[in-house]
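for the writeup, i need someone to sanity check this before i put it in the appendix. the sequnce is what the collaborator sent (i think, or maybe the updated version? ugh). structure was predicted straight from it, no edits. if anything looks off just tell me and ill rerun, i have time this weekend
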Amino acid sequence: MSGPASAATVVGTMAPDSSTFVFTPENLAEAQVILERYPEVGRQSAILPLLHLAQAQHGGWLPRASLDYLADFLRIPRIRVYEVATFYDMFNTVPVGRTQVRVCTTTPCWLCGSDDVVRACQETLGIGIGESTPDGRFFLREFECLGACANAPVLWIDDDFYEDIDYAGTKAVLEALMRGEKLRPGPQNGRRASMPIGGKTSLLDAGD
């Protein structure tokens, strides 16, 4: 079975045993909460959040045992899980680093300097696109549009988006993560949300 991460270069030991998989008690409880959001006839609709949960538990990637486990958990054919896990770019079906570092290089981000963001990632982590660090902590990849074009360039790390980022900002974010810290996500240049840097220019009434 191939998937979006099939071209990844893996260095070092990445993950626990991948021949078996079961949710931890904590994640099983969370999976039950997720499942309760869907009607019985629509159980398979829970597959996306459950894949995220399984991937986080297994260190950033989904072994086949986890896909089979989710199929049995949802009582659906295994192919239904395989086709979802191999279609979406956020899921990895081969070993990669636990922390997912994704740089948007689509046109708006590229025009605003995403090449510098990629370079900062490569120099700080010491790896290239599609590679993982030797300690298995970080995996670097390019990514298509992340939907924050007004705040380009954008760096997506696990569940956090760092916007209006540049070379120095990228190094600062990654070096903080390497120390076990985390900088505040969102715009890195003082912008609020997607407003102009200088503040509002329209919708200026008190109720806005």
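The longest strand covers residues 99-104. The radius of gyration is 19 Å.
thx in advance!!
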